[in-house]
UniProtKB/TrEMBL annotation:
Residues 306-366 form the Multidrug resistance protein MdtA-like C-terminal permuted SH3 domain. Keywords: Cell inner membrane, Cell membrane, Lipoprotein, Membrane, Palmitate, Signal, Transport. Its main location: membrane. This is Efflux RND transporter periplasmic adaptor subunit. It comes from the Bacteria. Residues 107-176 form the Multidrug resistance protein MdtA-like alpha-helical hairpin domain. It is found in: Cell inner membrane. It is a lipid-anchor. Residues 66-209 form the Multidrug resistance protein MdtA-like barrel-sandwich hybrid domain. It comes from Serratia marcescens. Residues 213-302 form the Multidrug resistance protein MdtA-like beta-barrel domain.
Amino acid sequence: MNKNRGLTPLAAVLMLSGSLVLTGCNDKETQQQGAHQQAPEVGVVTLKAEPLNITTDLPGRTAAYRIAEVRPQVSGIILKRNFVEGSDIKAGTSLYQIDPATYQASYDSAKGDLAKAQASASIARVTVNRYKPLLGTSYISKQDYDNAVSTLQQADAAVVAAKAAVETARINLAYTKVTSPISGRIGKSAVTEGALVSNGQATALSTVQQLDPMYVDVTQSSTDFLRLKQELASGALKQENGKAKVKLMLENGAEYAQEGTLEFSDVTVDETTGSITIRALFPNPNDTLLPGMFVRARLDEGVRSDALLVPQQGVTRNPRGEATALVVGADDKVELRTLKADQAIGDKWLVTDGLKAGDRVIVTGLMKVQPGAQVKVQEVDTQAQKQPQSEAQKS
């Protein structure tokens, strides 16, 4: 026998009540979620314009202020070396002595030729002086007088040539003493006593380098260099006495005690890499710096009086590569701004266009909002993370 089993009236009432309760709860949760979506909470940073000392670390190498390769200007045998390798010498110090015997003989011979020419000129002058009063008489013809004058002129020319020969011989004799053209530190000697050297040889006898002051050659991209020049010209970056300061980090990580200056006039562009070699000048009184050392120059680009630094997490790039940021307006609505942010200063971007002091940039909760949305603002404290505004380093 089949029985038709249905719900009792009490069970039906209970199930309907439970359904209403569940429906009410779901509606309440939906309303709460909707309210939360309408005003999501975001973290913002309020921008402040402050003076910023901008620095850049660039790799470089040291180079001597002046370099002189010592070469012989006459040929001969080295008789003596007059210096200690690696010592400091003064300009004019005798470095090598070349055998002077043949040059001394040439000098003496030239002086003898000069004396002979002077004697011949003296006789020719006396002859002219004798002939001149007798010119026009039967004793001296015009031809004889002209010949005497010509002989005197030739004798005077011979004296001039003899004097030049004496001077040449004297110079060659002086060249047998090889001296230093500059003051500085001399390197190792390429020759020893008894070696034959010649004028115009390819190998230098030694090299003298002036180490105080010292050059440091660093490389910078042409784009950054042009930007730096433009900002200096416009006054956006200020410098002391028209020159940028440069600090130096040595190979062992220590900071060099002396501060240098940047020489903007001495730059060249490498066509293959597009980089520019910038030369800085450093005092080197204790010879701490040696030529060829690898260093890192900390370039002080100047002071930007109204710099705006934005945390990097608040800046994104659109498909066109433009920097953008989400800003909370006065009515707590989100706005999309396109920025000009080309320089990274530590963990922040230096923004030069698109933002102003007082703007509230969203740095947390970016994924929860979009332009035009109403948000709830929470100020983010970046004091513990940010660098001092007086000096920021750009890598």
